[in-house]
Design brief:
The complex is a heterodimer. Chain A is mainly α. Helices cover 73% and strands 0% of the residues of chain A. The termini of chain A are far apart. Chain B has 6 helices and no strands. Chain B is elongated. The chains are: A mainly alpha, B mainly alpha.
Chain lengths: 113, 194
């Protein structure tokens, strides 16, 4: 975090530049939508642009480009849990609830009786 | 009893308590929105068809521009206060509140249009997740406006007694506000364009 007035005056310029870039990137996102790309390409492009915009907001406006290590530590933990959270629904596809497990084949089962 | 480390940094973390507090709060917010984004992905992947063009891209884009501008005015409010310019800092804060209100007015028109056509959250899976995500985001905007109104009104008295603590409060509010902007940056393409 900047403390001296000179550094803050310099950072005001970067806030304006980033603000302008965010607006340009928003225009690009809308323009790219007009190209009617295939769905996977459209998703990839839109998310790449959104990630670039998000990085600019976090790094410059939220001052994450020069923060204390405690903040980075907390955010690193958040990222780990966020990724786990995103992939959590995959467990619903691989769980065995409702599926027969270890039952003998029907024919063999019938012979036993 | 005076609350310690509201202005001066703690010796162990190098941070004022409020700063670490707001970042931990934002971490919990990431998980909240993350759960809903995860739900969106699950619903979308599992859907046999997904609607396109149901939302107004024009209104969504205008709201994106409004929130980006409000993020700039918010950070400018903090920078002006850091430079000891109280009136300019308050002006930027006021502009941020106005922009946030305009965002909500736009959202109101968007919602009203859907409801007029009988397209509430019950209408389809897409509209259910759309209203959930944008509704929760809208509540965050309202929360931000309430805090900013306090800092603009009665909370501004702190400037006279403890200038640095007031600037810190504006900074923490700004961090929250930029996060709300960041969430919208992802919501816009995910809901309106894809």
């Amino acid at each position: 975090m900047h403390a001296d007035p000179e550094a803050i005056k310099k950072s005001i310029r970067s806030y304006m530049i980033v603000g302008a870039m965010l607006l340009v990137f928003t225009g690009l996102t809308v323009a790219a939508n007009g190209f009617h790309l295939a769905v996977p390409a459209a998703i990839a492009l839109a998310l790449i642009i959104a990630t670039m915009k998000g990085t600019m907001v976090a790094a410059v406006f939220m001052h994450l480009s020069h923060e204390k290590k405690w903040i980075y530590g907390a955010l690193l933990l958040t990222v780990v849990f966020f990724v786990v959270l995103l992939f959590l629904p995959l467990l619903t596809m691989s769980d065995g609830i409702g599926k027969p497990i270890g039952h003998p084949p029907a024919a063999a089962h019938g012979e036993a009786h | 009893m005076e609350i310690p480390y509201t202005v001066e940094p703690r010796p162990d973390s190098g941070l004022a308590n409020g700063k670490l507090g707001i970042w931990l709060f934002l971490a919990s917010e990431v998980m909240l929105f993350g759960a809903l984004f995860s739900t969106y992905i699950l619903l979308r992947v599992g859907a046999t068809e997904w609607p396109h063009g149901e939302l107004s891209i024009k209104l969504g884009a205008i709201n994106t521009v409004i929130l980006i501008c409000s993020s700039v005015t918010m950070v400018m409010s903090w920078a002006s206060l850091k430079l000891n310019n109280f009136s300019k800092g308050r002006l930027y804060l006021l502009v941020t509140i106005v922009l946030a209100t305009v965002f909500l007015v736009n959202k109101y028109f968007e919602y009203a249009d859907h409801f007029a056509r009988g397209e509430g959250p019950w209408h389809s899976t897409f509209l259910a997740i759309y209203f959930t995500l944008t509704g929760l985001h809208g509540l965050h905007i309202i929360g931000g406006i309430v805090v900013m109104l306090y800092l603009l009104g009665p909370g501004a008295r702190l400037w006279k007694t403890n200038q640095e603590q007031y600037v810190n409060r504006i900074e923490y509010t700004g961090l929250y506000w930029h996060f709300v902007d960041l969430v919208w940056i992802f919501l816009f393409p995910v809901l309106y364009l894809l």
